[in-house]
Structure formats: C-alpha cells, structure tokens
User: Fold this.
Amino acid sequence: MALDAALDRIGRALATPRGFIAFLTAYIVLQFALRGYLLPCASGDDVVQLDLSTSLEWGYGTRNPPLYTWLVIGAQQVFGATMQSVAAVKFAAMFLMYLFLYLAARRVLGEGPLAMLAALSPLAVKLVAWDSVTNYSHTVLATAMYAATFYALLRIDADGRPVSYAVFGLFLGLGLLSKYTFALFALALLAAALTDRELRGHLLNAKASISAVIALAIVSPYLLSMLDGSDSVTALTRDVFAISDGQDRLGAALRGLDKFASGYLNFLFPLALLLPLGFATAFRPLSGATPPDRWMRILGLSFIIMTVVYLAIILGSGATQFRKHYILVFILLPIYFFARAKAAGFAAGAPARFTGVLLIVALLGLSAVTAKYTLEPGRCMRVSVFTPGAGHPQRMSAIM
Assistant:
C-alpha cells in the first residue's frame, strides 16, 4: 500500500508539465554528461559528423540530409570541435522528441497521467533508449521531427491560426532536412488526416499555403544542390535497400520481409511486454466501448499507410535489406495505444504502477550505458579517439 501511494504521488507529479520537464531535463542532461565526458571513443556516426563539420555546405552528399551536420557546426561554437558537440545535438534532439510527444499526447489524451505515460514510453523501446543513445545521429533528429510535426498538425486542428500553419511548415521543412524517411512519415500522416472532414477543411484552404511556402523555402536549397547528383541518389537507394539486378525475387522478398519484421520487433521490445501489465484491455477489440477517438483513427491509418509503403518497396523492388531504425516512423504508436487504453478503460492504479515500471527501465538504461562507456574502451579492439588539433580534432585509430 505504501509503495502504491508513493508511485501515485510520483505519477501525479510527473504528469504535470513542471514535473515532466524537470524529470526529462535531468534524464537528458545525465545522458549527455555520460556520453559526452565518460566515453573517450566515437561511434561511426560521430566520426562522420566531426569530419563533415569542418565546412558549412548546402549538402554533404546524398547519404543523409544536412540539418544534423549544420547543428553540429552550431554546437561547436559552444563546445569546440569535440565529441561534446555531437553529443549535444543528439541529446537536444532526444529532449525535443520526448517534449513534443508529451505536448501532442496532452492534446490527444488530455492532461492526466496517460499523456505522460505515452510520452515516456520510448524509455522502454530498445531502438530509442539504447540504440539511439549509443549509435544513431540523423535518426534521432528525424524522430524529434516526427513528434514535432504531429504536434503542429494538432495545433492547426485546434485553432487554425496562421502561426500554427507557419509552425507546421517549419517542422515539415526541418523534417525533410533531417532524414529521408521523414517524407514517408509526413505523406502518410497528411493522407490519413485528409480522411477526416474537419482536418480536410483545415488542410485544403488558403492558409495551408503558408505551410507549403515555408517548407519549400527551407528544403529547396538542399534539393537544388542535389540536382547534379540524380545518379548518386539512385545508387544510394539501391545500396540502402541492397537492391541488385538479376537476383531471385522470391528469395529477396523473404529476406527483406525478415529484416522488416526484425526491425518492428526491435521497436516493440520490451515495451509491448510491459504494457499488458497495466493496460491489457487496450489489446482487446473496442466493440461495445466508447467510439474510437478521431486522432486514434488518424494515427492508426497513418501506420497502415507507412506499413504498406514499406512492404511495397520490399516486395516490388527486390530489396533484401531493411534497416531497423527506419521503423522509428512509428514513434507515435504509444499515443495511439493509450488512446485505446482510454477508450477501453483500465484499473485505477494502472498508471501509477506503469510509471514505476518506466522509471525502473530508465534507471536500468542509465546503468547500462554507464557500464558500456566505462568498459568499452578497454575491450574494443579498435575505437576512434579524438584529440584536439590545430583548429579541429584529429582522428586516429587506437588499438585498445
């Protein structure tokens, strides 16, 4: 009973904007400090970013859009050309991801604890709480843009003011400059939104041109810089999805589907195993319950569209490779789930107990990355170490 009461108090505190921001800030600052100052070696993405950030360009080839590198260059004005500048961008983006998930969830689910749980659920998603923390760069920024764009769409639905359209256009443009998978997310979300009568009225009016103009203004310089690299874009697509001519189409499809399923399972683990502990009713059909929320329907349709497109690419192109972090376009899934939980009903103590579960998972994650950062330099056969050079860090390979 005492534990339940304590968890209830903690859950209520975290469900407030002030409590949520305080917890999120502490978590992200600690992650940044651990990554930026405890681990002396760099991942492959970190190495690439420090190499690219020696100059400010419209684009850095076709592998990824340039926004992340631009932000690293900006962070270097504070931290210098060091690992801390790369870590600062990553964890600032992660902060924004959780923040916009929370802001969006409050609009969909209300101001109770469900919004907080939906926003913090990625703490129990391996692709976010481990892979994104230890490896990814552009993917983390794109995931923040997914959440921010959805929040901006909710603002348009709520007030329809020109400033809301401007914010939506801003995040559309920045999202397109963060990672190519953002285009799939945005198109699927807009297609799903257009099936809603109210949103259709907001998106097919004169004010929507504000969003379009701002998004195009942001992304056009990069797109123009890519015009001379159309062959490179085709080659990149074939490389990313491992498409080759003359291969066995059935065998390729099976390998591609296996990679897709593996990525989706990585996204669900271990969150999908934990949610039934307090919200098992959300997994059941909602027949007989209250009608589904319109945003739950829109999100569900967007997930279906993204899944169909991914499967079409795999089956139609002969792709044998699907990188698991492409699945992070489904980052809004916790909001959808807790909308189902709200419609289906749940036990009074479920939010408090699940808050405790998420806090334990967060603590375990912090402990795990601390152990990794402490032990990895001693057990890695080869790591990348950065030492201050003349104006920019010099990279050297060190046998450890």
Q: What stands out?
A: Strands lie at 41-42, 382-387, 394-399.
